[in-house]
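call fold target=Pyrimidine/purine nucleoside phosphorylase
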Amino acid sequence: MSDFTHVTVVKRANVYFDGKINSRTLIFADGSKKTLGFMQPGEYTFHTADPELMEILAGELEVRLPASGWQSVKGGEAFNVPANSEFTMKVKIPTDYCCSFLK
């Protein structure tokens, strides 16, 4: 899917790591949430509450998920992050993403 319809966009940006990662929150009619964002090269560690689906729309990174080694992910690929966990990304080149918060 290349676009979303019937969503509410939260105007205020989500800004992480001194502005190296930015996203906007989308809220769907059923209450589900996604963020659309952009990451600059660097290494970043996140903590999750809910499970997440990270879709890499363009770019390239390596991700280390709980109990896993590093894996390469590039545009057109995705990975799942378990709830209540930590994951680290090494972003190689500017990367566009969509994060879906799963419940």
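return ok
The mean pLDDT is 96. The domain at 7-101 is CATH 2.60.120.10 (Jelly Rolls).
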